[in-house]
User: Fold this.
Amino acid sequence: MKIEGKQRIWLDYQKEIADDHFFYVRSCVRQNFFPGSEKTFLRILQSELSKDIYENPSHTTCSGIGYHTDIVPFATSMTMVARQFALMTEAGYENFTTSCITSFGLYSEVLETWHHFPETEEKTREFLHKATGREFKKPNNVSHASDIIFRFRKEIADKGKYRLVNQRTGQPLKVVEHIGCHYSKMFPSKGVGGAEYPYVLVGMIEDWGGEVIDYPERRHCCGFGFRQYLVQANRGFSISCSKKKFDSMEPYKPDMILTNCPGCPMFLDRWQYAISEMEGKTYGENGHGIPVLTYEELAGLVLGYNPWDLGLQVHQVPIEPLLDKIGIPYDPEMKFRGADGQDLGKPDPPSVLKFYTEKV
Amino acid sequence: MSKSAIIIGGGAAGMETASQLARLGIEVDLIEKQSRLGGHLNSWDRLFPNRRDSKEVFEYLEQDMNDGISLHLNAEIETILKAGDRFTLSLRDGKELHSDALVIATGYEVFDARKKEEYGYGIYDNVITSVELEEFFRNNKQKNLFEGIKSKRVGIVHCVGSRDEKAGNLYCSKLCCVTGVKQAIEIKELMPDAEIFCFYMDLRMFDRHFEEMYYEAQEKWGIQFIRGRLSEASENPDHTLLLKLEDTLTGLPLKMKVDLLILLVGFIPSPETRRLAAMLGLKEGDDRFLCPADEHTITNSTTIPGVFLAGTVKGPASIASTITDARSTALQVATYLK
Amino acid sequence: MKPFGYTITKDRQIDFDANDREVTGFINEVEPSIRLCMGCGSCTATCSAGHFTDLNIRRIHTFVQRGELQHLKKEIMKCMLCGKCQLVCPRGVNLRNLILSIHTALEKSGI
Assistant:
């Protein structure tokens, strides 16, 4: 592999990422799947990097999930997006940052639509004013939260306590990275590195000491498209998509998967359990599966935060093998205890995918 | 004062136009930007359809040239001016040349395969272009071609940079298909137990003996042809390439591993041609190659009196038709200068 | 196993490297004229059986080349060996022998 070839392509796809004064909008469901991620993002930006990041409690969904499932018409979506921008304008911010990648895709799409069809922008202003009395200015910069972590990856590496290196062997960890479809597949110029070889997660992994794996199904969708999985009968398609990716990455023996979308890590994590139940097959070492992380969780681990504060206990694929590889200490007793130490009970172990019970 | 002509470009077209004009008693200045004549003829090993040595053709063209030609090698053009019926060329080294007629024979370039990011040229180790393969054949006649590579399977991809809206070239480069078939046979000759696959959309075997070459490739050499355009190539852990395409004849997506991937890159109009054309006000087609005065009946002259075209400046052409075209251009120039 | 309500779909992509091409090798040896096929489809167009059954001789032997043998046995049984395909083939492939050879090969490999 000649890395210069990829670097040449990455240089073609640079984008502007704001560096301070962010207006943050959250994801609809991400806090269910990965409870610690958004909080960790805020913590990193505010405590570690001393950035100004603000969120308005009355902000809503961007309606991306409704739009992409044909429930919410585009005019309504544009108006909801406009309201989010109005809240940003009222709070005095110009840099918009989203937690969800589908949101990012929708905001980009709406801004592009307004750019090419100014009459839709006019209409949206009218709708918003009639519905809520609010007015808005378009943001100067729309970045996804992973773009921001990407931008500050070197600062995080400097403050970091851990590197993505296997303590036992001294080798960099092998990391598979997976980009959400709405990040660069729709607008390649709005993704760092473009659509063929996206760079946003690669940059983080490399600067934090890991090694990126390029495997044949790297660009394949994980199957989280709303149309694919919202109806139970369609989920077979979703799980088959993820399985194709797992089968392709298996020979490379990855140590973990890193993603930047709310849905992708959810599927890549949970489908390993479902595949193990359906076909008895597990990936990764010793039947434990390949741990899947969001970029905030990984940044949090690099910075030395307590893994249980990051919400890693709700991952279906056990995270402890990875923690042991990096050398991050954790208290197995505290895994299923609440903030005050109360016993929250334990989940039943799955029949094939193994719980991590021994510490090597 | 005898009439003179300047020929820009010392490839096959330029060399032959110069020879013919000199023989007709016209003073010829032949300008070539590289240090030797031949242009792309120096890049090929054996020429289709009969796989004869390209050096023989070069030697023929070279011997045809005589003392009536003033040769300017390593010469780059700064400006061209037309005043009345006279042309003045200023070269980068300060020299100035004058003539009564101008022949543009600056040829073509090959498509930069790095633009097809999904094929991995310049990224994966075992992806090369057809041009690089020819150079390998030309310079390594004694060595086993794929000594370093354990090639048991070679894939050849047709239409790289041609017939492709994303690459910016809608046209067909015409000669890549026959090149692919020729190279498939040549590789099989060197490695008889290799499996060679050609991935094509259509097979353009348009000239004499081309179809027979395709027949021979299948019957005698066992080359396999899979109809389906390569959609992407990825790298396996052992540096072999995993190809994804549709096997259109069965209607199913297909994936397969090859040890070496060869990209048949197409023709693009050379930037130098376009620069000179802009200076002279010559018309470009939608495909950015130059237009003659009439597509059927006046194919060697332009709409600018005294400016003539020869060879691949007008579009993809084989060496045989380029040489014929050059002779036709010479006749048009001679008639004009009488 | 818990009832999920859905199952994993089998990948229909032809995995050329995973397919067993022993039958392919046998056919190529026993009927080398098959190498001449250029996929024109004249054989399938003229096939009498192909109008009323799903017999597609062009596709069958292409599948044999790829090593995809699963449903071929049933399909190829529909050929009546009339020989019209062989009459029309522009490349001169000996199609009747090809069909008989595919029968033999499938029997030998126990498919």
About this structure: Chain B touches chain A through 18 residues (CB under 8 Å).
